[in-house]
Amino acid sequence: MITWWVVIGIAVDLAIRIAAIIVVPRNRRPTSATAWLLAIYFIPYFGVLLFLLIGNPRLPRARRRKQSLVNDYIREASANLDARSSEEGQPAWFTSLVRMNRRLGAMPMLDHNDAHLEPDYEASINRMADEIRRAEKFVYIEFYIFQADHTTETLFQAMEDATARGVTVRVLLDHWANRWKPYYRATLRRLDAMGAKWHLMLPVQPLRGKTQRPDLRNHRKLLVVDGIVAWMGSQNITDSSYNLKKNIKRGLHWVDLMVRLEGPVVSSVAAVFLTDWFTETDELISDGDVAIAPPSADGDLQCQIVPSGPGFEVENNLRMFVALVYAAQERINIISPYFVPDEALLIAITSAVQRGVKVELFVSEIGDQAIVWHAQRSYYEALLRAGIRIWMYRQPYILHTKGLTIDDDIAVIGSSNMDMRSFGLNLEVSLLVRDAGFVQEMREVEDQYRELSRELTAEEWSKQPLRSTVLDNLARLTSALQ
Questions:
Q1: Which of 64, 202, 204, 455 is 20 to 30 A from 188 via CA?
Q2: Bridge partners, 205 (sequence order)
């Protein structure tokens, strides 16, 4: 005999499924909507709780409003700077790409910059420390992971020396990324002791009234000194093992790439920091850095900073990547530790090969995040069939660099992976450069990576066991839960 509890249960289950069809697909990509609907239909109660917890891919409305206000301010304050960026000699497609980036991320393309790469992990930390030692007014530091350990000691000593000289040192670090890492409390105590001004980014502290989707991250990595020099790229401020026991046990070390900048583009990097500081603190900083950095005496690069993340209305980085891939005529090299493209980017990349463009993808032979690694592997068959060459950086190293080079004169470097998380959930920052000399520097790094990698062949991939294929496909499905 059917009881009332059974009837109520069936009615609730039916109501959940009907409501899901109405609510979930709204303003959501079809792949993401399908993944959420499958989760809710197969595990309705847990699926609904998960959706309520992480189903909103945007920052809270107040944070998005701040980002919009800052974007409007940057556009107005830099309205006269577009004239400083020469369009002479630019292909029409590149000019329109720059306009799109400007419209979405507010930052202008600027001339007369200098940029050089630093591929050595510890050398980049030491060189950033040297920059801080020369600081006279202020230092802005914003890193996803920020730890005081034996590798970063030189940088923390430089910060302490700077604050002792009266230099204002401001630090932003992601809350969730650092909260569970070694040296978290010790790092905060050291920042307090030196007199640095610091704040957590995207804190999840419900008892203090600070909440948002808990898996949103500020993934940016940047340093600005006196508004004259900036660093940005893929590297965190921590030991190359991340000081995690599991990494040390496996002998894992991260391989990264940073870029040092001089010229007017430094002001754009500073603007990203100032935006994030304002978002977290409601404080408008006036450290004398609002003036545009002077032109570089050593370089004449065209550079544009492209911020992206859930504070914006659309995926700024994804749109830039897709546009660049479609514009390529000869060569595309992609470096991404986590390569989980959406359908638009996958079609763009495979179509490039059909147009006669040579495409190479650099990834790691092993992964540090199982779900992402398996999701990435689920795309290898389609990429290999399309004719894309896949280079796997040999273990025990994790290739963590994020880069893209197009033909012989366009490059992108920054914090953004080519995966669903970086497109929709992480706050990222990328540098777009138009210069043959800079691309040649990137090519030299790519050549080093190629020498330290092995090529994955279609024959090798065809021998993958069934269990790996099943895991890969399941991970691919979960990657769409945004």
A1: 64
A2: 210
Choose among 188, 203, 200: nearest CA to 277.
Answer: 200
Please, which pLDDT band fits residue 482 given cuts at 50, 70 and 90? very low
- Beta strands, E only, 191-257: 197-201, 217-218, 221-225, 229-233, 253-255
Question: Which pLDDT band holds residue 392 (cuts at 50, 70, 90)?
Answer: very high
Q: What is the pLDDT of residue 83?
A: 46
CA distance 305 to 413: 10
Mean pLDDT throughout 386-390? 96
pLDDT of residue 65: 78
Q: What average pLDDT does the chain have?
A: 87
User: Which 8-state DSSP code applies to residue 108?
Assistant: P
Residues 244 and 275: their CA atoms lie apart, in Å, by: 31
284 three-state secondary structure: coil
146-163 confidence digits (pLDDT tens) = 999 999 999 999 999 999
* CATH number belonging to domain 316-478: 3.30.870.10
Element (H, E) at 437: helix 436-451
Question: Structure tokens of 376?
Answer: 């990435």
Six-digit token string for 185: 């409390």
Q: Using the CB atoms, write b or e for 93-112: b if 16+ within 10 Å.
A: ebeebbeebbebbbbbbbbb
Nearest to 362 by CA among 255, 469, 237, 458: 255
Whole-model pTM: value is 0.89
Query: What is the rounded distance in angstroms from the CA atom of residue 185 to the CA atom of residue 198?
Result: 13
Structure tokens at 181: 């890492």
Report helix, strand and coil shares of the chain as percent, to nearest 5: 45, 20, 30
The pLDDT tens digits of the residues spanning 408-451 come to 999 999 999 998 888 888 899 999 999 999 999 999 999 999 99
DSSP tally for the chain: helices H, then strands E? 19, 20
CB 338 within 8 A of CB 469: no
Q: How far apart are CA 203 and CA 236, in angstroms?
A: 18
Rg of the chain taking only CA atoms, in angstroms: 23
- In 281-425, the DSSP E strands lie at 301-308, 331-335, 339-340, 358-364, 389-393, 397-399, 403-406, 410-414, 418-419
The per-residue pLDDT for 427 is 92
Residue with tokens 């409007």: 72
Backbone angles phi and psi of 414, in degrees to 5: 170, -145
Whether residue 303 contacts residue 433, with contact meaning beta carbons closer than 8 Å, is answered with yes
